[in-house]
Structure formats: structure tokens, C-alpha cells
Amino acid sequence: MKKKVLVVDLDGTLFKINTFHYFLMFLLKYCIKDLNLFLLLKIIFIIIARVFKVVSHSKMKYNILKTIKNEERIDYSEYITSISQKKRDLSLISDGNFNLKILATAAPSCYANIISENECFDLCIATEFPNSKFNNEFDNIGEIKKNNTAKFLKNNKIDTLITDHIDDLPLMKLSRKNFIVNPNQKMKEILKEHNINYEVIF
Questions:
Q1: What is the DSSP string of 40-103?
Q2: Given this model, what pLDDT does residue 2 score?
Q3: Nearest in space to 138 (alpha carbons), one of 70, 64, 61, 67
Q4: pLDDT digits (tens, 9 = 90+) for 100-122
Q5: Do residues 115 and 103 lie in contact, with contact meaning Cβ atoms separated by under 8 Å?
Q6: Measured between alpha carbons, how far is 66 from 39 in angstroms, rounded to an integer?
């Protein structure tokens, strides 16, 4: 029996913010509170490298996750609590007609998994802690996100996608219905160019 599938993006969609940017601030506060000067300096150095465009956003994320991978005292649940007021109320998530609800995001799995569980998703597809050298498939975004999601669909199709970002265009092309959160004019033009039908969520 085929399942009715809902796929939801995290940053800018389920949450009104870029959760990774807020996570960086949380990490800096954690280092100060924990008096971990060495980790603090490493994170600051990684952020500065990104600010001056020495590395890409994906490489910065890779470096951050690699740096904190073995930091067992980081309380990711505390981070989620700190941003709880930034969550957007999406009524479709509680729609009982969906058999499979997927949170698909480029955000790190270390906290995205907690959000997924809190919001009763069946599956979370996110950016994992790195286990190898950096490559283009590390960041769960764009085509990579589409491919990773498709692996779990098997013979099922995406019935509904909710997102705010044009990076999810590959997923939009797979979805029967698309709900776009606050699209700007440029995004509307790109969607029109690719013949993507959608409804707007404000």
C-alpha cells in the first residue's frame, strides 16, 4: 500500500529562523559557560574564515560539526528549548491523512533529530556529523537533499512539500503539492520559469 507523504523543511519553514546561525551563538555561549577557551577559539576561527569567505557555508558547517563531534557535554535539547518561541505553527503537520511525515533539512542532525521527535515526524533527514574528508555530498541541501529523501520513499511519492527556499526546487519537482512560506519576487519568478505550482503560506 502506497503511503501519503509529507515533507517539511526546517530553517525558515518549521522555524522562522536559520537554526544553524542560532546554534553557532549557542555554542559560543556554551564555551564561555563551560570555560572551554580552546573550543571557543576554534569556533571563532571557523566563523571568521566564513565571514571573510575563505570557506563556503557547507565547509564551515563541516568544520563546526567536526570540531564539536566528541563534545559530550553539549545539551542539544537545551538549545531546542532556547529557540522554541521561533517555531511556526503549521497545521498540515498535524494532518492525520499523512502516513509518512519527513523533516528534511540541511541543519545538523544533532539537534534536528530532537525537533523531529518533538514534532512527531516519522523520519528526519539532516546533515550528519562528518566521518570522512569534506566533499560535495556532505551537506544535505539541494540535489543531495532530494536524493537522500528519495532513498526513503521507495515506491511512494511526495504528496505535499512545505518549504521556504529555492534550494528545495529539486524536491518541489517531485511533489504533487507545494506550499511555499513567504516567497520573494525572485523565488516566484524561478518557480514560474520551472512551471512549479504552489500555494503560499504567510
A1: HHHHHHHHHHHHTTSS-HHHHHHHHHHHHTT-TT--HHHHHHHTGGGB---GGGG-TT-SEEEE
A2: 79
A3: 61
A4: 999 999 999 999 999 999 999 99
A5: yes
A6: 12
